[in-house]
Amino acid sequence: MRLYLASTSPARLALLRSSGIEPVTMAPDVDEDAVAAEAARQSGAPLTPHRVVELLARAKAEAVSVALSEAGHGDGLVLGGDSVFVIDEVIYGKPHTAEKARQRWQLQRGRTGQLFSGHWLIEHSNGQPGRAVGAVAVADVTFADDIDDDELDAYIATGEPLFVAGAFTIDSLGAPFITHIDGDPSTVVGLSLPTLRRLVTRLGHSWPSLWNRGPAN
C-alpha cells in the first residue's frame, strides 16, 4: 500500500521512514492563512486549535488528492497533517523570524503548553479519491526552566526553531530543552504514529501493508 505524504516536512518524512514507510512526498498547494481565515469568517468565531489543525490537514490532503486525480494515478492513501502549539490559550504556528522565535521561548521556558497535530487520510483507488477519515492528537510539552539567554540565542541562531510549530523540536537540537511530554511523543514531531495507524485501520487496511523499507535503512 503506497502512502502519499501531503507535506514537505523533513521531520514527518524522517518519522515515517523510521517506522518502515517510504512515502511519496508531494507539496500541497494550500494557502493556510486564507483557508483558516475563511473558515473563521464562516463560523463567525475564532477557530479552536483542534479545528485549525483538522481543517488544514484536510485541506492539504485534498489538494494532493486532486493533483493525483488530475494526473490519473495515485492508488494508495493520501495523508495530510498540520500542527500548532498552544500556551495561554493562544495558538502559535511557525515563527518564521528569529525575533518571534525568541519571544516564544521567553514565554514558554519553564512552562507547559499543548501541541495539537491534525491528520487527514484519503483512500485512493483507480486514481480517484474515496473514503476519508481524520483525527487530532494532543500532547503536553514542558520546557526546562533553567535555559539561559546564551543557550536560547545559540539555538535560535541555528535556524531550526523558525520553521516549526511552537519554535521547538523534540527530535533534533531542541530536545535537551524539553523536560517532559505527556502524550504520544511523535505527536510533537508533527505526526502521531498511533493515530495514523488507527486511521489506516479504520479504512480497512493493515498497518504492516504500508511497510516498504527497513527501519534502519
pLDDT under 50 segments (min length 5)? none
Structural class: alpha/beta
Tell me the number of structural domains: 1
Q: At CATH's second level, what is the architecture?
A: Alpha-Beta Complex
Give the radius of gyration.
18 Å
Share of residues in helices: 25-40%
N→C terminal distance: 19 Å
Q: Biggest β-sheet: count, sense, barrel?
A: 7 strands, mixed
Along the chain, the helix and strand elements come as EHEHHEEHEEHEHH
Number of strands: 7
The number of helical elements comes to 7
Mean pLDDT across all amino acids: 94
CATH topology: Maf protein
Proportion of residues in extended strands: 25-35%
Give the CATH class.
Answer: Alpha Beta
Q: Which overall shape is indicated by the principal axes computed on the Cα atoms? A: globular
Features:
217 residues, 7 helices, Maf protein, alpha/beta, seven-stranded mixed beta sheet, 25% strand
What does the model show?
36% of the residues lie in helices and 25% in strands. It is α/β, with parallel strands linked by helices and 217 residues long. The chain has a single domain (3-210), classed as Alpha-Beta Complex (Maf protein), CATH 3.90.950. Strands 1, 2, 3, 4, 5, 6 and 7 form a seven-stranded mixed β-sheet that branches. Helix 2 (32-43) crosses helix 3 (49-71). It starts with a strand and ends in a 15-residue tail after the last helix. The mean pLDDT is 94.
